[in-house]
Amino acid sequence: SEHPFDGSWGYQNTGFFAPTSRYGTAAQLMELIDKLHNAGIGAIMDFVPVHFAVDAYGLKEFDGTALYEYPHKDVGESEWGSYNFIHSRREVACFLQSAANYWLKEYHFDGLRMDAVSRLIYWQGDEKRGENGVTINFLKVMNQGLHRLHPTAMLIAEDSTAYPGVTRDADKGGLGFDYRFAMGIPDFWAKFIKTPDSMEKLWYEMTNHRVYDRTISYVECHDQCINGDDAMIWRLIGDAMYTRMSPFNATWNETRGVALYRLMRAVTLNSAHAGWLNFMGAEV
């Protein structure tokens, strides 16, 4: 969606029904997706149903009052300096549900990856503050409607919590997603690299299907590389690879790092995870 600040990575939106001009016109984005489909490539959109940018020309105080956002700052402002949607208002829920349907219907995206779902499960994303029943219901209703209208679309939750039922059908008590981005798993791998005695907890995270339900995706994404961190394979290899990129010149650390990465992916695949998502740089 359209967003004014590149530094937000596109997550602080101002135009929820407008594709960013960085991809050209709306017609050009539609053409791009058609060409991807003709080449056998799917397209998934990053959808942000949690918060929006504070720019005055966006949704902020849309009618002069806190219309789309909470009126109280303690729950109205997010940790990213944006405003949280107030999903308890039916018109706000309908706005977001309509936007999600719009991208699937008009642009033919193959699925939606919904950002920051933990902020919808728990108040401000903090488990200690308790579950937010209103936003949990919002997710269930939206996912049920999207599945009914677009039965082949993939609905993916970007979620780092251990909340049960994220990928369970909404009519069976779950949230109704098809996949969960299991972001916690690579984070546990990173901790294991630093503290090998955490292997037992890592194995629990990877194999505890009571927590992660029926479908899991092992995910490496930008969240593993923020705050100066490297992609997982570079963490395993260390600085040596930066100075010697040729496989014919591989040092022991490089060979060991690549072997550990292969082991990590093999173990992850064989622990019944549904799939992988590579971050740029992990293709090696």
Show the helix and strand layout:
Layout: H1 26-38, E1 44-47, E2 51-52, H2 73-76, E3 83-84, H3 90-106, E4 111-114, H4 118-121, H5 133-149, E5 154-159, E6 179-182, H6 184-194, H7 199-207, H8 209-212, E7 217-219, H9 232-237, H10 240-243, H11 252-270, E8 275-277
Parallel strand pairs: 1-4, 4-5, 5-6, 6-7, 7-8
Antiparallel strand pairs: 2-3
Helix pairs in contact: 3-5, 6-7
Terminal residue distance? 31 Å
Label the overall shape.
Answer: globular
Structural class designation: alpha/beta
Secondary-structure element series: HEEHEHEHHEEHHHEHHHE
Could you tell me the radius of gyration in angstroms?
Answer: 20 Å
Q: Helix fraction?
A: 25-40%
Given as residue ranges, the uncertain stretches (5+ residues, pLDDT < 50) are 240-248
Helix count, per DSSP? 11
Strand order of the largest sheet: 1-4-5-6-7-8
Strand content: 5-15%
Global mean pLDDT: 83
What is the tally of beta strands? 8
Largest sheet: 6 strands, parallel
